[in-house]
Amino acid sequence: MDETGVTTVQNPGKIVARKGTKQVCSVTSAERGTLITLALGNSIPPMMIFPRKKFQLFFTSNGPPGCIGTANGSGWMQEEDFLVFLKHFQTHTKSSQESKVLLVLDNHSSHLSMEGINFCRSHGIILLSFPPHCSHKLQLLDRTAYGPLKKHINSRCDNWMKSHPGATMTIYDLPL
């Protein structure tokens, strides 16, 4: 399990222009975008953390089947959000004391709450944390999944901008 940020401002894809053209432009969503955090695992639907005070169900209505969401002021993973993710994880993995599951994650401070650790102990989830400052080398999701995922999201955002001229993409449009 790992988190990554996804923004509402995409990098436009390659643009074909006439040879010798001095200025070539493409439309982006905004100068400064809003970031949501995705918490992903290998085999469970994602969890999205929105930078809002209160979560609304329509935030994830365009998301993948089974995805869930939370909201907090920063939009980053916090202890309460991690507990929601653990419950989501346990539901999809069906872990128990008889059928334990290993959850590999980085050592972010949000992953270290007593409530979360006690939940894992009682539901057969074994936590394995990477040492500080090395998850970018050891975390499989960083190495193999997030690059293609962000490229796909960027491509979908580019297509969204082309099909909605003049509109600004919001965080509610991201769960494509």
From TrEMBL:
- Listed InterPro entries: CenT-Element_Derived (IPR050863), DDE_SF_endonuclease_dom (IPR004875), RNaseH_sf (IPR036397)
Q: Which Pfam families match?
A: DDE_1 (PF03184)
Domain DDE-1 as annotated: residue spans = 41-161
Membrane-spanning residues where?
Answer: none
Write down the PANTHER family for this protein, in alphabetical order: POGO TRANSPOSABLE ELEMENT WITH KRAB DOMAIN, TRANSPOSON
Q: What is this protein called?
A: DDE-1 domain-containing protein
- Source organism of this protein record: Pagothenia borchgrevinki (Bald rockcod)
Lineage of the source organism?
A: Eukaryota, Metazoa, Chordata, Craniata, Vertebrata
